[in-house]
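To assess whether the prediction recovers the assembly geometry, we first specified each molecular entity separately, as shown.
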Amino acid sequence: MTYLLGWSVIPQILVRRERWPGGYKTKGVPLVFPGQDVLPDQPVIRLEKAEAIEAVATIPRLSLPAVMDVPATANYDLGNTQAKVPQRGGETLPAGLRGRVVDITRRGGVVIESNAAVLQGVLGTGNQVAGVLTMWQVSDAGEGQLAVPPGAILVVPGPLNFMTLRQAIISGVVGVIASSISSRDLEGFLRTDLVELIDCIDVDVAQVHLPSMTILLTEGLGTTAMPARTINLLRRYQGSIALLSGATSIRQGIFPELVISLPEAEVQQHWQPVRPDPTLAIGAQVRICSGSYEGAIGMVDYLYLHQQVFLSGVRARAARLRLEDGSLVTVPLMLVERIS
Amino acid sequence: MNTQPYAEGGRGPIGSSNPSSASSLLVADCGTVFTKVSLFGLVEGQYRLMARGEAPTTIAPPYEDITKGIIQAINVIEFITGRNFISNGRILSPEQPNGDGVDLFISTISAGGPLRLVVLGAVDATLEEFARQAVSGLYAEINSLPSPSFIATSTPSIPVPVGAGSMSPSTGSTGGPWTQERVALEWERQIERMRELQPHAALIVGMANGPSGPTPLQEACQLLVSATKELNEQYGASVSAGAAVHDVASHQIAVLYAGAPQYIEAVRGMLQGTADVTRVESLVSQAQIGPTSIAAGGLYERDVMQHIPGYPSLRAWSSSAPAATTTSLSSLVRFLAQHYTMNVTAVDIGGATTTLMLAGEGGEFIPMVNSGIGIGSSVGAVLKEVGIQRVARWLPFDVTEDELRQYVLNHMLHPHVVPTSQRELQFSQAFAREALILTVEAAKRNNFECIDADLILATGGILAHAPKLGQAALILLDALQPRGVTSLVLDRTMLISQLGAVATVAPVAAVQVNENDAVTHRLGTCVIPFGEIPKGELAVSVGIEYTNGRQLMVDVTGGSIEVVPLRTNEQALLSLFPAPGVDVGLGPGERARAAEEIDGGLIGLIIDARGRPLELPTDEKERQARLLQWMQAIGA
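The predicted structure of the complete assembly is given in tokenized form:
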């Protein structure tokens, strides 16, 4: 589910996210401290694993040189965030976000506050990863070959299929963002039962045996295209480092999301946090999330005063929408998600 | 129903007024998917339902505040009535001279998920059953993890019989002797299982009088200490600004201790302060189920309800503490059974929970709250439990596995959507049947003896919003499979679940709204012969004598449904002439003549001669044809 009644794209919002790679046997040693400013490519955690965990160990991510143990009482120079990081071999995790460290969790996760754009997915899988947003392009090598650098987050501005996923994981991308995929293709790729996966209580346990590539689907299952608004956002931040999480748990209310820290100049010049307003009003841009018009984008043209009867015989409060192709359709309010 | 104004010291809304003189009430029911708010008011001296509003429940991001959904639903009522009820984000109270505001605000909650409870210690089949019965009336999911030493001593070389659903087939079922390695393996599996379950609470049972002595109690404590440590490391509060770990609030698993009383202090000691221990009567027989149930109910309120985002605001608005919807429903069902001296079965099919309650005229009460089985976000659990075939058997058309799975996944991800096509509607109603069947089966597994209901009272979105009343009736007949003579009543207002809570503050309003609005959709009286019903041959002849003197005789063949016209407010005397071997409640072949007139309903007099248990034809085409025939007969 996207946020109830929509707002799957929030262009400017202040978020707090724990940087944590997933895996219940993973321990993190924070390399930063509360109050410290961090950059997206700055290492913030060094991983320590009690036991090797397949899902965590095999994720290709922006690995940076590790550091020596950082004493908890060390005196830090707030103005020089990276200077005192000694070099040593091993895996570290970059922040993925630009912002300020506000907390360190018991497991060693680093909570970062950031001015960011947020894209909420309907369905996803996989642990949190950071990578460079890269738009999908067919390479010169020919059709079906993906030209993406390893460690990137690949954006496919349309539906996915099994083969694309296979190629993406072979190419070494850490994550894929796409509009939709058939349940059969996704289950085939994950080799798991999707119903069980999204009904899990513990997302860390559920993710362990999945392929080591995070997936976010903006529209969910099926063949729905990606809305222009979403594509525009992703294009705009192409080349930026972003934080992608694919974990989905209906029971825990956890949904996939992409968080992209806004460039500093943008924050200074145009910072205007957007507060999602769920109210459906005439003129609001909406998306239809189920039924025969599933995935269609439109504008609320009229809100019916009385319940309308639909083909199923069900009576429901309804709205008349003007779709992008200019046609008018009447749909139940419960099928309408406000997207801006 | 008891009158308990401002129970539990609850604060009333702004400028709260005397409940007994309340002339208007707002009642909110916060479900997993939708929040429904109803406005009750006085009309010619009687409390009536004035308006209803519905909005998605808002406990998930980005809102994370249950009151936002309530306000949205109240906004709908404001739009309908032209009155204002919200002022500065709070309920305006008492009612103003211009009609704005309300005198009382009451709420019930089923959102927030169930209490996840693990039963630890010396858990044998009997104690597991008692534990299940103790939480059967609560939003709770229960899993048993008998201690490794108890399993080893009680089942030396056979598969583990207890908690089969929660057992990994790789351990308990491996058979063979219980070696040290195998016990160690079981221990590891249990820690893993605790991690998966993330329980809110644990119930420790066992009297330490078995071959393993008090060791199971000790192992239960060890498991809890290990699980708590791990949960804290993984999900515990943060250690910010240099605060030492021991100074940071820790996650705790609440413990109900119902084991051997002499070990209570030892258990407290072994838990080393990692768990908050509440002692309840040792669970050894049916007699202790009540105290355990009350204690578990308290944990649900404390560890689940009170953690719902926005709960403090909701509590501050309310005239009494928000009640669990199931608690409210049980109050009403028991009241109805006693007030009308009849056996009442109540059904509530929700998005995440399916509830079945049976209250007998003699005071018997059987609650079965099947948490995690529903037709919204929990529809996946229904599919997992029963499989595609059992769902598809209720569909009068061909369907592929892919299509049904796609429906399930989309419905889990978008539980608030309403079906817009006939096909989607049929899918949702098929899942509703299976959710209810699973709940009946769960009640039977708990050794609850089913009571033949005089009245079946049904609610929940799928039934209340059914486009045709016959669809709701057929779902109930297919899933509950009642026998004899019963009445079906549909609560289309979805109010019955809240009236028990209303009654604690405003009993008169609860009774009057119940009679005036909630149970007004009487679908009709049902005659359901059972026994040896011959398919395609006469099963029962039904004689109807209307109050205007008109007489009618209807022959009903085995395997069919007939509806005889008998409208609302019409009565008739009923005579039943079953075929040999067919039972209408008085024994095989015994004729029956009702001493009192039966009431009509919106559908009429329904005679369901399909037989019990209901068997669907195995041939696909025949099954589909039969389903269509039944749907047509009942007007579905």
